[in-house]
Amino acid sequence: MGLLYLGTPLTWDEAKQYADHVREHGITQFLHTWDRVKDRWGDELLWGDEVEYMVVTFDDEQKNAKLSLRQTEILAKLSQVVGDLTDDDTPALMTVPTFHPEYGRYMLESTPGSPYTGSIPDLLSVEINMHYRRTLARKHLKPNEIPFTFTSFPRMGTPGVFTEPHFSPDDATSSHSLFLPEEITNPHARFPTLTANIRSRRGSKVAINLPVFIDERTPRPFIDPTIPWQRSIYPEDPEAKNGAALIDHIYMDAMGFGMGCCCLQLTFQSCNVDEARRMYDALVPVGPIMLALTAASPAWRGYLADVDCRWNVIAGSVDDRTPEERGLKPSKDNYVIPKSRYDSVDLYISNDWISKPEYNDAPVPYNKGIFKRLRNHGIDEMLAKHMSHLFIRDPLVIFSETINQDDTTSNDHFENIQSTNWQTLRFKPPPPNSHIGWRVEFRSMEVQMTDFENAAFAVFIVLLSRAILAFNLNFYIPISKVDQNMARAQRRDAARSGKFYFRKDVLPPGHASLTISPPSCSGSCSPAEGAPAKEKLLRNCFPPVPRPLHVEDGPIEDEYEEMSVEEIFVGKGSKFPGLLGVVEAYIDTLDLQISKYLDLVRRRATGSLQTPATWIRNFVRSHPSYQYDSVVSQEINYDLMVAVDEIERGVRRAPELLPEDYAPSNGYHSKPNSP
Known about the structure:
single chain, alpha+beta, two-stranded antiparallel sheet, 22 helices, 17 strands, 33% helix, disordered C terminus
C-alpha cells in the first residue's frame, strides 16, 4: 500500500505547506517519464495478482477468534524463510513469492515472486501459486494462527477482546477512534501519519455509516448500545452523539475499518500507452459488476449490515475532504469535490474514436494550472484531464528527507498522489530506470475464501482483458451509470437480484459476430496459412478498429440498458454474447482447457452458487445462538471462522458456495524433467 520510507513524517500542519511543491514536482516527474517512454511499444503481456490475508488466532477455550497483531514478527520470519528459498524449492513454473506489509497490523499481502507471462502454463499455475503462498505463510505461524483470505473481520471494533494481544481504544492517538486501538495499525510511520493527517485535513474523524440489516428482533429504531456515547478523551469524541452516528446504521470512525479490509487486485502490462488506455476504459464498466459477483463482506463491527461489500467503507475511511469540499459549508469559490479519494473511476482516458465525449458525463474537478501545463507539454486533453483531476488531492504523507528529489530519476512525488487516489482502476506509468511498461490495475474485487475462487476470478479477468483487445469490444456507458452501478453492486444480494446498466451492442461496427484481430506481434505469431493454429500465448498489441467512413450515432441512451448479472455474463440478444461468451470465444483461439473456473463464474452469475456475502449472512442467521437481532456474537464469529478454514482446506463441504468437487490445490506439481 503506497510507498514505505524510513524517515521523519510531517504532521498535517507541516505537510500542507509542501502540497503545491509535491504537486509541481510530481507533474515534472510524470513529464520526464512521458518523454522517456511515450513511444515505447511492443511489451508482452506480464501480469500479477495481489492477495491480502488477515491472520486470525483462535482461543478454543473462550471460543474467540481474534486478529493477531504479529505482522512485524510474521513478516520478519517470512522474509528470512523466503530469503533462504531458491526457485528449486518452489512448485513447478514458480519463483519464490514475496510478502508485504499492509495497513492493518494483522494483515499480510502476497504476490508471485515474478510476474506471470502470457503462457498457458502460467495461466494454469495461478491457483497453485496462490495456494503455495498461503501454505508458506501458514507453515510459519503459530499453531493456533491461520491466514484467511477474508474481506472484513466481523467483530473488529466491538467491545471486548477482538485482537491478540488486547489493547484499549482509549489510546488511539492517530485515529481518536471510539472502537479501534492504536496498535491495530501497522507501526511504520507512514500508516499512523496517514491516519492522523486524514483526520486533521478533514477537520473531524471519518464517519462511516452502513445500514444495519433489520431482522425479526432488531430493535427499532436501532441505536447502537455498543457505542461509548459519553467517552471524553479526544476532542472528536462527541461527534458520534452529535450526529455522526446515524440511527439504524452501523457507525465506524477510523481508517482501519476500511484499509483493514482484504481484497484481490490484478495488474496487467500493456503493449504501449494507447493500449493501456483502451484497456483501462474497457474495464471501467466491468468493475462494479465484478464487485457484486465477488461480494464477501456483510458483517461489520459485530452486526449484520444491509450491504454485501466493502467499497463504501473504504471510501469513507480515507475521505479527507473538508466540509467545504464535501459541500456541507459554503466556500468562497464554491469548490466541491464530489467523491472521496477512494472511489470509482471519474473519467475515461482513451483517445480511441469509440470513446465519445458524452460518456464522461459526471462533474470532474481538476487542477486548471496543471491541466494547462500538461497541454502545453503536448499531452492530449483526455490524459491531461485525468492527471490534473488526480492532482486536485493533497499529498497526505510527506517525509522530511524526501521533500527535495531529482525529478529526472525519481517519481516519488508523482506516486505520493497517484498511489493515494484509490479508484476501481489505476493507470500506471512505467517507473524510472525500469524494464516495466505501461500498466493497468483492476481493483474492485473482494477477496474470496479459497484460492480456487481467487484464481478463478483472476484468470477470468485476464482472459476478459485479452478478449476485449482481440475482438475490439466496446463496453462504454456513461460514467454516471458506472457510478450508479457501483452503488447498486454493494446492496444486499445484488448479484442475484440487482440490475445494472450495461452496453447492449459490444461488437465493432459492421460485425454481427466476434471476429478476432490478429495481433501486431512483438514475438512469434501463428502461421498464416491453412486452418488457424491454436495460440499458446495470451498476447498484447492487438490493433484497434479504424474508424469507419460512415458512423451512425444515435442517442447515447439507446446504447445501454439495465441487465441482471446473469444477463451480463451469459448474454442478452444477438449483439451481446455476455462476458462469458466473449471469454469462451477467445478461449476457442487458444490451446487451453479451463472450464472449472468459467463454471464457477457462470454459477455465481446465474445464482446456483452463492456469493460469499450471502453464505456468511446465512451462516450467521442459521447459527443456533443467533437471536435474530442482527448481532454477530463472539461465539458465532468463532464458529464462522472455523467453518471458513475448514471449507478452504476441503474438510467441510459447502455445495451452496463451491462446486461439489472442490478440493484445494496441493501446492506442488513435479518439476519439468524431474524423475
